[in-house]
Amino acid sequence: MIFPLPPLSLATLPGDGADNARRVQDTDLYTGTVADFSGMDPIIYREPLQTEQYDSMSLNAPNFVSSMPLGDFVYFFFRETAVEYINCGKAVYSRVARVCKYDRGGPHRFRNRWTSFLKSRLNCSVQGDFPFYFNEIQSTTELIEGMYGSASAQLVYGVFTTPPNSISGSAVCAFSLQDIADTFEGNFKEQTQLNSNWLPVQSVKVPDPRPGQCVNDSRTLPDLTLNFIKTHSLMDESVPSFFRQPIVIRTSFHYRFTQIAVDPQIKTPGGKPYDVLFIGTDNGKVIKAVNADSADTIQRVTPVVIEEIQVFPPHMAVRNLKVVRDSNLPDGRLVVVTDNEVQALRLHRCYSDKILSCSECVALQDPYCAWDKQSQKCRAVGAARWSDEKYFYQSIATGVHTNCPASKLLGKDASSVGGLSSSYPKSFNQDTGHTGKDIPDGEVINIMQDEEKHSDCLLDFAVRCCECCAAGCQADSAVGMALDEPRCLQAMQLIYERALHSDWLTSQAGREPSTENSIGPIKGNQQCALLSTEQAF
Fold this sequence. Notes:
Elements: E1 21-25, E2 28-34, E3 42-46, E4 49-50, E5 63-70, E6 73-81, E7 92-100, E8 118-123, E9 125-126, E10 132-133, E11 136-140, E12 144-148, E13 151-161, E14 170-176, H1 177-184, E15 189-190, E16 199-200, H2 223-231, E17 239-240, E18 248-250, E19 257-267, E20 273-281, E21 285-291, E22 303-310, E23 320-326, E24 329-337, E25 342-346, H3 358-363, E26 369-372, E27 377-380, E28 392-393, E29 416-417, E30 420-421, E31 442-444, H4 451-471, E32 475-476, E33 481-482, H5 485-499, H6 502-509, H7 533-536
Parallel strand pairs: 8-17
Antiparallel strand pairs: 1-2, 2-3, 3-4, 5-6, 6-7, 7-8, 9-10, 11-13, 12-13, 13-14, 14-18, 15-16, 19-20, 20-21, 21-22, 23-24, 24-25, 25-31, 26-27, 26-28, 29-30, 32-33
Helix pairs in contact: 4-5
């Protein structure tokens, strides 16, 4: 039997990738999109209800980011031109809006219109007498539940940036569901005359029943309430960030944050829970970070950048991130998506052969990793007796443990934190823009499973390439392929990056690091001879 599908309106079929906020709740589809092909009529829609058409007071050129159902409401996160700032110029603000799931529209002329639509500004800023705002929201996580300080909270993490023509900056802020709800219970904002300032509405002017609430039947609401919410959908107070400041801030002309995923409440051997943040950028990077103070207090933020990984070529922006856990993958994977490729990375590298001592393991400040004092190895969360602090050494807050024997630590910098570096070679061809098959930090889904074997091969190939270029030859017989100058330069860069970690280079190559400018011969893996140029670069 064939069941006919209900007709779809343009409002349920967004016209381009920017209109990406949609959510199915029960049998209802909620969308943040446009109602016409020109893109001039943005609406929040659930058949048959929608926001007011061509009304900048409701939505003013919004760019929808995400939506989610929480309790009796569906929440939308977006950025739009701020109508309350229009007297001073043009600015884009980040918003959170909500509608009631049980809204049935109003009577008469309010038929097929939301009676519960409210919105408020999201405040992601560096505090001070003159706060510095990150005004443009780019992405959010789903709702994260956990313990922060001594209390439980439900959080939504978001990526925020400065405007494209401003000082380039990005930040991650968190917002609690309770703070959002409190804001919607606060004062409304209004502009009494065309050129007057926007001010809070006095409580005596707010009708009863209060606009924006869930009611048994919205069609019975009085006209006074419906007229008020039509012209007063904006709240006066902004939603404050949960930790009262951004968790991670980056100012860089080279990249901006684009996406975020969170692996929530990873418990350390001491029992403290931490949210591990994975942040994507528009130049192919993934940044792994944690707020080292979140388990103890919400009044202070201590950001720790654990890793910064170049997953894709710099011209490929990260479009989506997802933490995936499966019974076949006990350690989980981070799925990283661009417009053209998908990769899966390990959530941690606690087992890395570069982590050889207690001090190096603790210095990672990675909630996934701790030093097993019995086996004398760096172990990952889930190891036997993990919850017993007597058997493991770890310090997320400081990266130093008093019981660790003194040892030489690799220095930390912007790209090498705790001994794990963004310089793990990502073998992509800068000429073709395609990623190779040997990805030491992860695997290309359904293509590569054995990372370490191909890492060895890549190293051997790159060293031979450097030797060949130094000798002025045009072909490397050991690998059996023609070499041109750009490929050699890539290989030299690869060796330089690997040589920054001389202990690792020694263990992989089987020789002492050379102190000369040239790189001596290295015993190769026979399997490397099977690799083609495309596999290595």
